[in-house]
Amino acid sequence: MARPSASPTLADLAEFRPSLALGLQQLLEYEGDVQETFCRDFVADIDRYGQSVQAPLCPSGEQKAVTNANRAEFVELYVKYLLDVSVSRQFEPFKRGFFSVCGGNALSLFRPEEIELLVRGSDEPLDVATLRAVAIYDGWKKGGGPADDAVIAWFWELFEESATREQKALLSFITGSDRLPAMGATSLIIKVTCLGDDTTRFPIARTCFNMIGLYRYGSKEALQNKLLRAVAESEGFGIK
Questions:
Q1: Residue 101 pLDDT more than 50?
Q2: Which of 109-113, 138-142, 198-202 has the highest mean pLDDT?
Q3: 39 noted as active-site residue
Q4: Span 153-162, mean pLDDT?
Q5: Which end of the chain is more exposed for a tag (fewer CB within 10 A), N or C?
Q6: Which residues contact 193 (CB under 8 A, 6 or more apart)?
């Protein structure tokens, strides 16, 4: 059975326009005379090409006053207008494109937050230990396998020791996204490639292949300085 369509809520508006959402919440909770105090009609104040205009929220909304009895209806219509009606023209092309790729009966089995998880990935703290366990290596054969190379050990130590924000920035540098896939860390295979001997050059990344290239830096501090600067000064596309 298909799930009912989800209607936008005041909590959704709070993510987009927190100050407005707070004002509407205060209107709902106000204990005095709403009509006398707020002097509002059933219209939404919007900015259109630099000019403030009023959009009716219902037929003859500009002539319908907001009162204690109908304020919940006003807030519901206001939120629906801002998050649904006012953007329907821009959203419809995106909707058609989305369903042309992801359409089908199976989509109706998911809640909105589950679809968001599939598209954006998980926002949970990074499981660096698992990322390390499933990582693969290329070019680290001098003097033994990858596990015996100091640069590899330093890289994962720096990854684990970093604050969550820095971990996400490094993950975004390598993969193009600061989130783990919906299936978890085990489904994200990071490839760590050796680019050559010690140098003044910076690490590089190829996000399409989830690959990071490192040189055989002479110390952990050198690796840290080069890596952090490469991450901080990089610019590209990503999924936020």
A1: yes
A2: 198-202
A3: no
A4: 93
A5: N
A6: 137, 138, 139, 211, 212, 213, 214
